[in-house]
Design brief:
Elements: E1 3-7, H1 18-32, E2 37-42, E3 59-62, E4 68-72, H2 79-90, H3 97-105, H4 111-119, E5 124-129, H5 135-140, E6 148-150, H6 163-168, E7 174-177, H7 180-190, H8 192-195, E8 198-201, H9 214-221, E9 227-231, H10 240-253, E10 259-263, H11 272-276, E11 280-284, H12 288-297, E12 300-303, H13 312-319, E13 324-327, H14 331-340, E14 343-346, H15 349-361, H16 363-381, H17 383-398
């Protein structure tokens, strides 16, 4: 097999973000499995940077494990024009075809990258794009659609409904989905089964040999009581405010010493009284082992987000032997909880209260749910499983 070129708007070993992390892990594990891979990206630093600024030097670079990175300059963009259309999309306001073109033209784009792909297509078996909504994917996938595979990370959001995407994506060779509900959404929007695009529900690979030390977490951070854990970015987009609100109502209604522990970046308003009396503990960023230790010590992990294409922290919680509680409005996480029999889901406060009571009062069942989840992750998302699935899927597309 010739090279696999992974295309992403920005790339560096330490960049945060789900798609960025997924690409780093997939590329690294395929590289270790003997598949030649490269990263094709721009000179932009990261998602939160100026998409017109070439932070990195153009040309060849390499990752810590020796994978070649090819960086290309971005074009200057009309930020105001982009922001005007993006605001409409964020507010779910209809946009015209001309506004769609503005959105795609004035986001992150690199004509030099597209020209390289067109001129060097024979050097690559496939170009794999992640995620779906950026110019590097929309324009890049049009260079060699017969060699283009997307890891789209689709959500049920306004961007996914753009007519320009519906014109381009069904012409690509393959789609790799992180979860079954994402694949079902994509089929409704794009009709890949009719277009001939090959699809697979892949999931995200996991290192499944996690060993938590709950006692170490309790000793290091002084948490002696039972606690619910939230792990991830703290902002309203992750629906953490709902978890905080429901937790505050729960302890108001119950004679309990239950605490809520938050780990991860970002900021959200927390009830001062509950922070001051230690009922809510915000630890911010912690190192990886501390996170695993917290997951192992928690009564359960609550993932309240309504908008996920996967959830690494849910898989980690299961690998640490603990159940999860997710929001019923997130098709992906609800499907994971149901398929694995590793957790429960809630849609309002009283369902949250009922689920919390059930887990706290049924310790053996909670441990069984955690064990079910662990088996589910190892069966479906162990890296050996994922790498084999990628190799078979790529071979199916290329015929190599």
């Amino acid at each position: 097999m010739k090279k696999i070129g992974f295309v992403i708007p920005w790339y560096a070993d330490g960049i945060p973000g789900g798609a960025e992390m997924e690409l780093r892990e997939v590329a690294s594990h395929l590289h270790y499995a003997g598949i030649p891979v490269e990263i094709l990206t721009t000179c932009v630093k990261e998602f939160g940077a100026d998409w017109s600024e070439n932070y990195y030097k153009e040309g060849e670079d390499s990752t810590a494990n020796g994978i070649t990175i090819r960086r290309f300059k971005v074009r200057k963009r009309d930020t105001a024009a982009f922001d005007a259309v993006n605001l409409k999309l964020m507010n779910k306001t209809p946009v015209t075809a001309e506004e769609e073109d503005t959105f795609l033209r004035e986001m992150v784009n690199s004509p030099e990258l597209y020209e390289y792909m067109r001129g060097h297509s024979d050097d690559y078996s496939l170009f794999v794009f992640i995620p779906y909504m950026f110019g590097t994917t929309y324009n890049g996938a049009q260079m060699c659609p017969e060699k283009s595979v997307l890891i789209p990370c689709f959500h049920d959001e306004a961007y996914a409904y753009l007519s320009r995407f519906k014109e381009v994506f069904p012409k690509t060779a393959g789609m790799v989905f992180n979860a079954r509900p994402e694949a079902e959404l994509a089929e409704r929007l794009y009709g890949f089964s009719k277009s001939g695009t090959k699809t697979i529900v892949m999931g995200i690979g996991m290192d499944t040999d996690i060993v938590p030390d709950p006692a170490a977490f309790r000793e290091k951070f002084g948490v002696k009581e039972q606690f619910i854990l939230y792990a991830g970015r703290k902002d309203e987009g992750k629906n953490v405010h709902t978890l905080v609100k429901y937790f505050a109502e729960y302890i108001r209604r119950h004679d309990t010493d239950l605490r809520l522990v938050l780990i991860g970046g970002g900021q959200i308003d927390l009830p001062k009284e509950l922070v001051d009396n230690g009922r809510i503990l915000d630890l911010g960023f912690v190192d990886r082992q501390d996170k695993y230790n917290a997951q192992g010590a928690a009564e359960f992990l609550c993932q309240p987000s309504k908008n996920e294409s996967f959830s690494l922290v849910i898989m980690e919680s299961w690998l640490c032997g603990r159940p999860v509680l997710v929001h019923e409005d997130c098709a992906v996480t609800r499907n994971f909880a149901s398929e694995s029999n590793g957790g429960l889901y809630f849609g309002n406060y009283f369902e949250f209260e009922g689920c919390t009571d059930y887990i706290l009062e049924h310790k053996n069942t909670a441990w069984q749910m955690g064990s079910n989840g662990r088996d589910y992750v190892r069966r479906n998302f162990d890296w050996d499983v994922i790498v084999d699935k990628y190799k078979r899927f790529f071979a199916d597309i290329t015929g190599e």
